[in-house]
Amino acid sequence: MTTPRTDATSLVRQVSIDAPVATVFKYLVDPELMCKWMGQACIFEPFEGGEYRCEINENIIAGGKVVEVVQDSKIVYTFGWEDRENPVVVGSSKVEITLEENDGSTLVVLTHSELVAAVEQHGEGWDHYLARLAIAATGGDAGPDPVANPPADA
User: Fold this and answer.
1) CB contact at 8 A, 35 and 49
2) Which CATH superfamily is domain 5-137 in?
3) I need a labelling partner for 112 at 20 to 30 A (CA). Which of 67, 75, 93, 140 fits?
4) Helix, strand, coil proportions of the chain in percent (round to 5)?
5) Alpha helices (H) in 108-153, listed in sequence order
6) CA angle, 43 as apex, 38 and 44 as ends, to 5°?
7) Tens of pLDDT along 55-85?
8) Domain locations in the chain?
9) What is the pTM of this model?
10) d(Cα 53, Cα 65) in Å, to the nearest integer?
11) How far apart are CA 8 and CA 88, in angstroms?
């Protein structure tokens, strides 16, 4: 499903989703639909300078600013964690997502760059969330997110 590529400060993941580009795009920019695959509360203002914020749970919160939105084609935003202990702070890295129609399916290519640390962990996170996006965007139920709701003994 995903094709990982990484270097010292960036990673690339791709997934093919059996849904039209317009549908997948909505799941990337509509906060209500975003919560079906990532986060319990999301903000995405789809214009340059708009806010991006995704609360995975009350302790795990990502934020940044929207850089570019091209309808049904491309989304770019800055990214980082509100946790001051995390080396990837809000706005310090960049996520670019491109969508390409391919015989009724959508190829999603995600590039997360300018990561100063934790490339491997972010790759694992994107693998997890892109798999959940593929379920949600095809009308499935991705179920409770184990990252947002870890088992009590974790």
Assistant:
1) no
2) START domain (3.30.530.20)
3) 140
4) 20, 40, 40
5) 119-137
6) 95
7) 999 999 999 999 999 999 999 999 999 987 8
8) 5-137
9) 0.91
10) 8
11) 14
